[in-house]
Amino acid sequence: xxxxxxxxxxxxxxxxLTVAPGDVLRFAASGGRVRGGEAVELLGVxxxxxxxxxxxxxxxxxxxxxxxxxxARPGQSTLDVMAGDPFHSSxxxxxxxxxx
Length: 100
Known about the structure:
The protein has strands spanning about 5, 15-20, 25, 30-35, 40-45, 50, 55-60, 65-70, 75-85, 90-100. The strands form 3 sheets. It has a 4-stranded mixed β-sheet, with no helix packed on it. A 4-stranded mixed β-sheet has the order 2-10-9-4, with no helix packed on it. A two-stranded antiparallel sheet has the order 6-7. By secondary structure, it is an all-beta fold. The chain has one domain: Immunoglobulin-like. A hairpin with a 5-residue loop joins β6 and β7. The model has no long low-confidence stretch (mean pLDDT about 90). The chain is about 0% helix and about 55% strand.
């Protein structure tokens, strides 16, 4: 299993990607969805946090910034990933993920 880090707002994104079952796709993005297929599942949309020196959690204000998907089973899925500021200048990247 691998953690595959993708940054749609900082790099050219491939339109097709082949991964293995159990791989997790981590997008630096503010939203996402599985538009079609059952090979990939959305684990969730998250806000990053850090642990402070006193043990408290430090969470920046603003929109979520991490989207996780998991390659669940062999097959193909189409993903929409929303990057950028969701309130002003977002962009949607569509990818086809093949799981084999």
